[in-house]
């Protein structure tokens, strides 16, 4: 039974094993082996986890045994086990686990006389699970979505209602609605969470919202038909793509006014900054390009050809890759940031728009507008490992800071799909 599941893995790392020896009756050695430190599980998939631990310092070392269970407390005695003749190092990938399940792990060290160290520290990890657990009604034609830094609240722009819905991530419910100017689109939250910034496509403005006061504090004029906004974490700058006049407006936060404008002469759309704050990446929807802008002097470092009508862009947490969704050919391009070249093209759903990388770096998520789905891309394999049905016109996606939840804005069904990424 699943509730009773308890399996013992024996990982042989030194010497041949002729058979199983008991746990220390009449030991010939006075001191048993010293316990090892087990690290947090890595590389979660739907049905597997990778475990690593420190090597034993015992001179009479014989073998490791890795215990795991779906119960939170490991029992004191085990009788069932399997032998895995790996003979490599202090790690193992456990396959065939249950989807979306928490497991607890411990490691034991045995010496050649059958003495063991006792359990190491007990650590837990969860396999992945992707499912819509709830749908939240918001305003009309929701577009952008962002979580605050602590993950307690998320903010959704409602482009046809001229408002921002504030959602509590603990209850997955709307707790406030804040009026904005006309046709709010892109949205960003400052690192402290004290302000939320929204671009208003019809008013050619960007507004700073005070979430506590539930009102606009001030607005600044930007370019024509602004679409997206990102904030720098290393400077007081905000960047806005203006699709109507092929520019990027740069203003300081709080906004006294536009400090300068980057002229690109391309129809711009999505925008992202790398974690090191070295480069700004902007998509050109008409040219099928991504423009890499060096933030040191705001010059164009590279122009990279991607698919047709790139609508979304995100940078991996390690800064090594940029993910670009191409709405007209149903693909995602992966750009290697060191050389600024496309290294992979991944087929996703129909008309992909928003793209986001999980903060833990394991997955990239793509909202597919026409399909009404979310494609889950493994960043290690570059393959789509899952597709989640969301709502009608899935367009924007935001991931919580702990990588456990995604909010997907559904433009046509006027709601937000809540996807539990890990139980």
Structural summary, described in words:
This protein is mainly beta. It has 2 domains: 126 residues, Immunoglobulin-like (Sandwich); 293 residues, YVTN repeat-like/Quinoprotein amine dehydrogenase (Methylamine Dehydrogenase, Chain H, 7 Propeller), CATH 2.130.10.10. 0% of the residues lie in helices and 51% in strands. The chain is built from no helices and 35 strands. Strands 4-1-3-6-7 form a 5-stranded mixed β-sheet, with no helix packed on it. Strands 8-35-34-33 form a 4-stranded antiparallel β-sheet, with no helix packed on it. The chain starts with 5 loop residues before the first strand and ends with a strand.
Write the layout of secondary structure elements.
Blueprint lengths: L5 E6 L37 E4 L8 E9 L12 E3 L6 E4 L7 E10 L11 E4 L1 E10 L4 E6 L5 E6 L4 E6 L4 E7 L4 E6 L6 E5 L4 E6 L4 E7 L4 E6 L5 E6 L4 E6 L5 E6 L4 E6 L5 E6 L4 E6 L4 E7 L4 E6 L5 E6 L4 E6 L4 E7 L4 E6 L5 E6 L4 E6 L5 E6 L4 E6 L5 E6 L4 E8 L1
Fill in the keyword field for this structure:
mainly beta, 0% helix, 423 residues, Methylamine Dehydrogenase, Chain H, disordered N terminus, 5-stranded mixed beta sheet, Immunoglobulin-like
Q: What's the short version?
A:
With 423 residues, this protein is mostly beta strands. It has no helices and 35 strands. It has strands spanning 6-11, 49-52, 61-69, 82-84, 91-94, 102-111, 123-126, 128-137, 142-147, 153-158, 163-168, 173-179, 184-189, 196-200, 205-210, 215-221, 226-231, 237-242, 247-252, 258-263, 268-273, 279-284, 289-294, 299-305, 310-315, 321-326, 331-336, 341-347, 352-357, 363-368, 373-378, 384-389, 394-399, 405-410, 415-422.
